[in-house]
Amino acid sequence: MTERNLWLRAGWFLAAMLLVTLLGAWLLFGRGRSPIQTDLLAMLPATERNPLAEIAAQRLAHANGDRVILLVHNADDDHAKAAARELGRMLGKNNVFASVTAELPPFDLQQLVAPYLAHRFMLLTDADRRALAQPGYNPQQALAQRINEPFVTGVGTRLQDDPFGWLQHWLDQQPWSRSPLVPEDNLLTVHRDDGSYVMVTATLKGSSYDDVVQRRALDALAQAEQAIEHDEPGTQVLRTGALFYAASARGGAERDVHRVGLISTLGIALLLLAVFRSPGPLLLAFLSTALGIVAATAISVLVFGQIYLLTLVFGAALLGEAVDYSIQYLTARANAGQVWEPRKGLRQVRPALLLALGTSLLGYALLGLVPFSALRQMACFAMTGMAVACLSVFCLLPALLQRPAKPLSTLSVRSALALQSAFSRVTSGRRGWALAIVALLLAIPGWRQLRHDDDVHLLISPPATLVTQEARIRDITGLGNSTQFYLVQGANEEQVLEREEALEQRLQSMVDTGTLQGWLGLAGMVPSLQRQRADHALLAPLFAQPDRMRQWLSTGGFRDADITRFVEAWPGTPLTLQAWLQTSLAAPFHYLWMGDDTRYGAASLVVPQGDASSAQLAQAAVHLPGVSLVDKAAGVSDLFGRYRRYASVWLLAALLLIVPVFAWRYGLRQVPRVLAPPVWGMGLTLALLGYLHHPLTLFHWMALMLVLGVGANYAVFLREGEPHITHRPGAMYASVLLSAITALLSFGLLAWSSMPALRDFGLTLLLGIGFTALLVPISVAPRTRSP
C-alpha cells in the first residue's frame, strides 16, 4: 500500500467520522430536548407475563411522576400557614409549574355529600350491613344514637338527609375522610406535637426527567424556601417527588463522569508520556479513543432514542479499554526503532488486534443478550466504541505515524522484564504446580463465603435525606407506598368491582390484625351493583311500611317536610362507576381504573398502604379469580436473580467459544496456557469478593465476562508481540501492563461510583484486571534474557 493510499484511506475514515460526529451533535443538542434519560424506571426490563400488568406498573409509577409534594412545618400554626401561602404564591408565579395548590378554593363540605344522596340507600358499611342482618335490629335505637351523636366537623351528612347515619358511616370510610390532612383556613393541615404541617402540591409543566425542567424547578424551589425561611423563622420544608430523585441521579452521574473522565484522562496521559516520551503518541491515542466514544454515543442514541445515565458513566470508563488498540500500534512503532515502516507495523499488530477485538465483542455481545435495556445499551455503546477505536488504528494511524519514534522508556521495560522473569520462574515446573495448589486452597474458603443479593434497589442509591423526607411525609400525611398493587381483571366493570370486594375482605382482615395500614381501591368508593342491590334489600323491610317510618322519624323530632322528603327519596338509584368517574371527586382516583379494553377486558388497581411484606400481600390474592399482586421491584429482583444464575453458563459459553479461535491460532495444546491468566484472574476475584463478604449481583457476573475478554486480549498481545521484540525483551509486557493500568484507571474508578450497580461492576473489573495483568506471563514460555 502506497503512502498516497494510506492518506486516501485516512481521509475517507475522517470524513465518515465527521458525519457521525455531526449526527451525534444533532441527536444530542439539535432536537430541542436532551436524550439523556434520568428516569431509572425506564431502564428496568419488563417483568410481568401479563402485558396489562406491565402497562399498569408504568401507569402507576408515573401517575404522580411530575407532581411535587411539599410539607411546610412550623411549631406555630399561624406561621406554618403563612409560610405555606407564601410558598404557593411564589411558586405559582414561575411558569415551570403548570399548577400550584396551596390554598383550596372556598367550598362547602356538603359538595362532597351531594353526589351520593341519590344513592344513599345503596351504600352501607360492613358494620351497618351486619347490624341490619340481625333479627333484633332496632331502627329506633339507631335513630336515637344518630340524633345524639356529636357534631361532625369533617365531611358530614345533614341529619334530615341521613337520619339513621348509614350514609355518614359509609362516608367516614372514604379516603378523603380517613386522611390526617384536614382543611383549615382553606389549607390542608396536619397537627402534631411538634407543630403544624401544611401541604403544598405543584405539577410541573414538563417531565421531571427533563434536565431543563429540573434546573428551573429546583431553582424556583430554592428561592422560595429561602424567602419563607427568612420571613417565617423556624420554618422547615419537607419535599418528595420524582423531580428530586431524578435530579439527584443526574447530579451523581455527572460527578461520576467528570471524576472518572478527568482522573482517567490525566492518569493515562501521564502514563503515555512517561512510557512513550513524546506528546505525539498521547494525542493520537486519545484521538483514536475519542472517535470511538463519539461514534458509540451517536449510534446508541440513534438505536435507542435516548442514553441512560448508567451508559454515560460506563462510557467515561471505556476510555481505558479503547486506548489498548492504539497502544499496541504505538508500541510496535517504538520497538521498531529506525527501521519503522507503517504498513509493516500494521501487518505485525493486525492479528493481535483482530483477535482482541473479537474476544471483546464476544463478551459485550453476551452482555447485550440480557433483556435489560440499560445493559443492552452499554453493550451497544462498548461494541461500537471498541470497533471504531480499532478501525481508527487500521485506517488513520498508519498515515499519521510515518516517522520512527523513540523506544519505550528503559525504566518501564526493565521493570516489566523483572516482573515477567520473576513470575515466570515462580510459576514454572513443580513450583508452578505447588503455587497453583496453594492459591486454590486459599481461594476455596473465599468461594464458600460467596452469597448473592438480587435486590433491584441496589441499582440506585438515593440520598438518605430524600429517603428520610419521603418517609416523614408518608407518616404525617398517611400517603401510602405505591410500588406494589393488585391488578384486578374481569369481563366487565361489574365483575371487576365484585372481585375487588372479595379482595377487600381479605385486606380488611390484615388491617384488623395490624398487618396492613389500609388500601385504596374503587370498590370502596363505588360498590358493585350486586352489593348495592344486597344493601338495598337489607333496608327494604324498614321502608315497606312508610307510615311506620314516618312515625319513627316524627318521634325523633323531625319536621314533616323533612320526613316526607326522606321517605319519598326511597328507593333511590344505584351508583354506577362511569357516572362516578365524571364527578370532580373522582379526579384524583382516575388512575385506579384501567378501562374496559376489548383486548384485555376491564381492569382496576388496588393499592395497599403500609409496610406489609410481598409474601403477605401475595397471600391475600391466592385463589381469587382475576386478582394478582404486581410488585415491580420484586419482579425485577427475581429477573436479576434468574439471569445472575444464568450468568455462569454464559461465562462458560464465552470461554468455550474462545477455545476454538485460540486453538486455530496457537494450537490446542497452547489454549490452557493462553486462557490461564483470565480464568485464574476471575477465580481469585471471586475468592476475594467472598472474603470481603461482598454479595454478588448480576453486574459482578457481567464484569467477569469482560475480565475474560480483556484478560484474553492481554494474553494475545503478549504472545503476538513477543516474537517481534526479541532484541528488547520486556517491552511487550510493558505495553500489556500499560494497557492494564489504563483500564484500571478508568474501569477501576467505577468502584467509587455513586451508582451501586457501577460500583459492583468497577470493583470486579478492578480486581479481575489487576490479577489477570499480573498472571499474563503464564501465557508465554519463560524468558530470562536481559536487555
UniProtKB/TrEMBL annotation:
UniProt keyword terms in alphabetical order: Cell membrane, Membrane, Transmembrane, Transmembrane helix
Annotated signal sequence range: none
Location within or outside the cell: Cell membrane
Pfam families from the UniProt entry: MMPL (PF03176)
Domain Membrane transport protein MMPL: 193-401
Bilayer disposition of the protein: Multi-pass membrane protein
GO cellular component: plasma membrane
Transmembrane spans: 6-29, 260-276, 282-304, 352-375, 381-401, 647-667, 698-718, 730-755, 761-781
Location (main, coarse): membrane
Protein name per UniProt: Membrane transport protein MMPL domain-containing protein
High-level lineage: Bacteria, Pseudomonadati, Pseudomonadota, Gammaproteobacteria, Lysobacterales
